[in-house]
């Protein structure tokens, strides 16, 4: 009997030990139901730790769309990435800052060598052209119905091709002029500017009077700027000439050039003569948009013709003289409402045939545009207005309030036209011909129209 009892007792003891060890293990791992007596909440399941996400690495190329922090270009973007990684630690973002001068060519080389970045923050002029060449990934699956209805049709037109969305619109502002208000205050001629009018509209003749006042009373200041080198800032020269001549750049269905009118040609002839008369900067045929804005930031130029609320913010730390600049719409021949092209900034994804990278890039876009904390912060850092109609009143500055009002002057931009990337290459060479005396305004605009219309037809035929 003793022999029988010993194995039984031993087995019983072993069973109890196993149960005790199991109970201890369960306690150490935590109770999935929580501990009611202690008031502890059940531990949340961390799916990421159970099945770790596969790390993804994406490359973001960015023009200086954000105001630099502490004078360092790209520093703010690094803060965005750090905040993004708090939510998405498995997505590594490689940032490369590019300039407005050399960036476009660098992008062209990258595309031609199959080394395009995954993500770009840019404008429709290039993005829509890339979309038409089937280089981008569509973004429709990340555009909610709320966002779709909150952005104007004019901005969506600049973001879509063939019914698909290829640019996620973020910030906007109408392109217009800026004036050195301080110059007019010192001259005692502030009344020559239309600042007492709610919409600030004014006539060509009023503008000429203001230029002459600068020439007569502030000899160290160039009255106004113009430029015709490279492609950057072409919207400034387009807006200037079309409004002075009360014309359109392209017709309403984008099928042909419309700027080669007698009135627009007369405006271009006036620009050529105004340069000779000292009302417009000399040597403008060899100046780029950045050269002219740099003269403005040095306090050497009274008017600059390629400006916006976005540029005003970006230039805040670049000023080389103390003065107050004020936004103004382009003057029109008859004082009618101006037609202003919209600046639109947004993000696009190159289709590099990697679905994981495309998905990761969409997450970064969504974070930049819509994160409850960073979305508004990022928008303000661009110095722009929101592309969304419901987001207003971001700034106390009077110029920003005016810029919001001036959105009513926004017209359809030519950037969505078929063949636009080629069209713009013909614009500045013809302006240069007029400025150098090799063609009249009408001859230059007619020559531009002939080449541009051919580009439009060729692009349409290729579809």
Short description:
The chain is α/β, with parallel strands linked by helices and 463 residues long. The chain has helices at residues 2-29, 47-50, 75-87, 103-112, 124-132, 145-150, 153-157, 181-187, 204-217, 234-244, 262-276, 289-297, 309-314, 355-370, 374-382, 398-405, 420-435, 441-462; strands at residues 56-62, 91-97, 119-122, 160-161, 164-165, 168-174, 176-180, 222-224, 301-307, 325-328, 342-349, 385-386. A hairpin with a 2-residue loop joins β4 and β5 (164-165).
Structure in words:
- By secondary structure, the protein is of the alpha/beta class.
- It folds into two domains: about 55-170 and about 345-400, D-Maltodextrin-Binding Protein, domain 2, CATH 3.40.190; about 175-340 and about 420-460, 3-Layer(aba) Sandwich (D-Maltodextrin-Binding Protein, domain 2), CATH 3.40.190.
- The protein contains 18 helices and twelve strands.
- The strands form three sheets. Strands 2-1-3-11-6-12 form a six-stranded mixed beta sheet, with helices on both faces. The protein has a four-stranded mixed beta sheet with strand order 8-9-7-10. Strands 4-5 form a two-stranded antiparallel ribbon.
- Helix 10 (about 235-245) crosses helix 11.
- Residues about 1-50 have low confidence and may be disordered.
- This is Sugar ABC transporter substrate-binding protein.
């Amino acid at each position: 009997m003793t022999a029988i009892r010993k194995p039984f007792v031993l087995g019983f003891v072993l069973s109890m030990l196993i149960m005790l060890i199991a109970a201890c293990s369960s306690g150490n791992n935590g109770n999935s139901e929580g501990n009611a007596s202690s008031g502890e909440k059940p531990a949340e399941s961390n799916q990421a730790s159970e099945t770790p996400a596969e790390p993804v690495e994406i490359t973001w190329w960015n023009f200086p769309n954000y105001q630099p922090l502490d004078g360092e270009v790209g520093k703010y973007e690094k803060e965005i990435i750090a905040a993004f990684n708090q939510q998405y630690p498995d997505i590594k973002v490689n940032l490369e800052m590019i300039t407005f001068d050399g960036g476009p060519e660098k992008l062209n080389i990258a595309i031609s060598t199959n080394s395009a970045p995954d993500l770009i923050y840019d404008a429709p002029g290039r993005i829509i052209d890339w979309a038409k060449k089937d280089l981008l990934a569509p973004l429709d699956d990340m555009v909610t119905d709320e966002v779709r209805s909150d952005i104007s049709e004019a901005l969506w037109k600049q973001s879509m091709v063939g019914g698909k969305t290829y640019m996620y619109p973020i910030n906007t502002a109408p392109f217009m002029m800026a004036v050195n208000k301080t110059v007019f205050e010192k001259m005692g001629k502030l009344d020559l500017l239309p600042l007492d009018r709610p919409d600030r509209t004014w006539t060509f003749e009023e503008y000429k009077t203001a230029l002459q006042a600068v020439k007569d009373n502030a000899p160290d200041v160039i009255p106004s700027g113009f430029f015709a080198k490279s492609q950057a800032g072409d919207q400034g020269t387009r807006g200037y000439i079309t409004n002075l001549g009360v014309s359109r750049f392209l017709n309403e269905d984008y099928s042909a050039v419309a700027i080669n009118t007698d009135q627009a040609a007369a405006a271009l002839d006036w620009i050529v003569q105004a340069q000779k008369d000292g009302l417009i900067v000399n040597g403008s045929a060899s100046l780029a948009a950045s050269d002219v804005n740099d003269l403005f930031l040095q306090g050497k130029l009274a008017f600059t013709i390629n400006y916006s609320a976005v540029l005003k913010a970006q230039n805040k730390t670049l000023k080389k003289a103390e003065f107050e600049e004020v936004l103004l719409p382009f003057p029109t021949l008859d004082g009618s409402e101006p037609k202003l092209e919209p600046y639109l900034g947004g993000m696009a994804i190159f289709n590099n045939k990697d679905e994981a990278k495309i998905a990761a890039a969409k997450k970064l876009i969504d974070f930049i545009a819509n994160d409850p904390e960073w979305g508004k912060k990022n928008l303000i850092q661009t110095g722009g207005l929101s592309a969304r109609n419901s987001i207003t009143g971001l700034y106390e500055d009077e110029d920003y309030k005016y810029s919001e009002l001036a959105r009513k002057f926004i017209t359809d931009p030519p950037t969505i036209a078929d063949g636009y990337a080629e069209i713009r290459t013909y614009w500045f060479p013809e302006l240069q011909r007029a400025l150098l005396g090799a063609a009249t305004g009408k001859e230059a605009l007619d020559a531009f129209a002939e080449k541009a219309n051919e580009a439009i037809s060729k692009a349409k035929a290729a579809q």
